[in-house]
Design brief:
Layout: H1 5-17, H2 35-38, E1 67-84, E2 96-99, E3 106-116, E4 121-137, E5 151-169, E6 172-188, E7 209-223, E8 228-235, E9 239-240, H3 251-254, E10 261-269, E11 274-283, H4 289-292, E12 317-329, E13 332-341, E14 363-373, E15 376-390, E16 404-421
Antiparallel strand pairs: 1-2, 1-3, 1-16, 3-4, 4-5, 5-6, 6-7, 7-8, 7-9, 8-10, 10-11, 11-12, 12-13, 13-14, 14-15, 15-16
Length: about 425
């Protein structure tokens, strides 16, 4: 089979990006995919703009034409926890302020390639970091009870999504992506909880473990008038192999599937130069026991790693995204956006989430694209997630002296992408 030069580049880049991952903001999912969408708060269900469109809605690939996109996002989270009101006597008292910023900067690459086989049929591939979470406490919050330094967790997820999109009419398309997923995880400094694990030898400090699996994303994009485009998308739960090295930590002996998620979107061409778009996305964290099971399961006779073992206690998350793009002139498009959603961590579940404080809710974004000529583009984006603090409520177990675990986080990212159309 003949593969064009851009197609060969796509395969090579996809292979190079395979071991590289992301850390994210809506719970542990990214606020958006593709530098253009990231400049509009992640909006993209009804507004495909590049060959990363399949990460949001595969149907959009039928409208982006022949192109390849290569980008890099520099992600800078700031996170930590305060433990207050702990009644354990010295030297076992846990009160204090703890920074999880031992690792401060993460580099998130992305790549997309799309080719129109004919005016109706598009074939493409999108390679991107789906999300992740990281904390690195150089001074462990649990050092007083034997916790080692550094302490924390590192979860990363990569998606490689070959995509087919077909225009059933000139203005309506359906799309499907096969999502091949790769995860990497490690945990350190959890030794004090060995007595609460079903398998203490597979709880902490055993290095990196990996997991693979697959799922599907389907979508529809429809231009219902000259001004209005609608879209809808659904991604199945991604069934993953288990983290066997951490069978004594995650519920169901190390299971960690990727949640189903779905959304709808609208894009309105308000003027010839101004496009306004909005998405609503729901992430079903409650469908994954290792994410959703509450810490109270531990005290109901279900140790860490058991079938009904505790997780992070996360609830489902619905995110509202609003973005705008304005064509300042024939060579420059400016973008901006704002998104908000209730973060997934209840105040009663902050204890375990000291290691995963994904509490930010509100994101502000900016972006721009310059046309460079000869089918080339250069895009940038900026995101700030405003600081959010979640104060615990009956969050610390009595066996550790009680008290509250209070979580806080804010984030910034800066991205750039180069694209060529052919």
């Amino acid at each position: 089979m003949f593969i064009s030069k851009p197609g060969r580049v796509a395969l090579v880049v996809a292979g190079c990006l395979a071991p590289i991952f992301a850390h994210a903001t809506n719970g542990y999912f990214s606020h958006g995919y593709g530098i253009k969408a990231k400049g509009m708060a992640g909006v993209g269900i009804a507004l495909p703009q590049d060959a990363l469109a399949a990460a949001t809605n595969p149907a959009g690939m039928a409208f982006v034409g022949n192109r390849a996109d290569l980008g890099l996002d520099i992600f800078m989270p700031r996170r930590g926890a305060d433990i207050v009101g702990n009644m354990s006597p010295a030297p076992y008292n846990l009160n204090g302020s703890y920074s999880g910023d031992g690792s401060k900067t993460f580099y998130i690459p992305e790549f997309g390639y799309n080719r129109m086989i004919n005016p109706q049929l598009a074939l493409g591939i999108s390679v991107y970091g789906n999300g992740g979470m990281n904390t690195t406490y150089n001074s462990s919050p649990f050092a007083a009870i034997g916790g080692s330094n550094p302490a924390g967790v590192d979860l990363s997820q990569l998606f490689i999504a070959p995509t087919l999109a077909y225009k059933i009419t000139p203005n309506h398309s359906l799309g499907i992506s096969l999502n091949f997923a790769y995860q990497r995880f490690s945990a350190d400094g959890l030794g004090p909880f060995a007595g609460l694990s079903s398998d203490p030898s597979k709880l902490s400090g055993v290095g990196d473990d990996t997991s693979t699996g697959w799922g599907v994303r389907v979508g529809w994009t429809g231009r219902v008038s000259d001004m209005v485009t609608l879209g809808a998308t659904y991604q199945s739960k991604t069934q993953m192999s288990k983290f066997d090295k951490y069978a004594g930590l995650y519920a169901e002996q190390g299971a960690f599937d990727i949640p189903a998620n779905y959304g709808v979107g609208i894009a309105v061409k308000a003027t010839p130069k101004l496009t306004i778009a909005a998405d609503v996305q729901t992430i079903e964290y409650s469908g994954i026991p290792s994410i959703a099971n509450p810490v109270s399961n531990l005290f109901a006779g279900n140790p860490l790693g058991s079938t009904n073992g505790p997780g992070f206690g996360w609830r489902d998350m619905t995110v509202f995204k609003l973005g705008a793009a304005y064509e300042l002139n024939s060579n420059l498009t400016l973008r901006g956006g704002y998104s908000t959603g209730r973060q997934p961590i209840p105040s009663s579940e902050t204890f375990f989430n000291i290691y995963a404080p994904g509490v930010v809710e509100d994101h502000f974004t900016l972006g721009a694209t310059w046309l460079l000529g000869r089918g080339q583009e250069f895009s940038i984006s900026y995101m700030h997630a405003f600081k959010k603090t979640i104060n615990g409520s009956n969050s610390m177990p009595a066996m550790l002296g009680g008290g509250e675990a209070n979580l806080h986080m804010y984030e910034d990212s800066l991205g750039a992408a180069y694209a060529w159309r052919f």
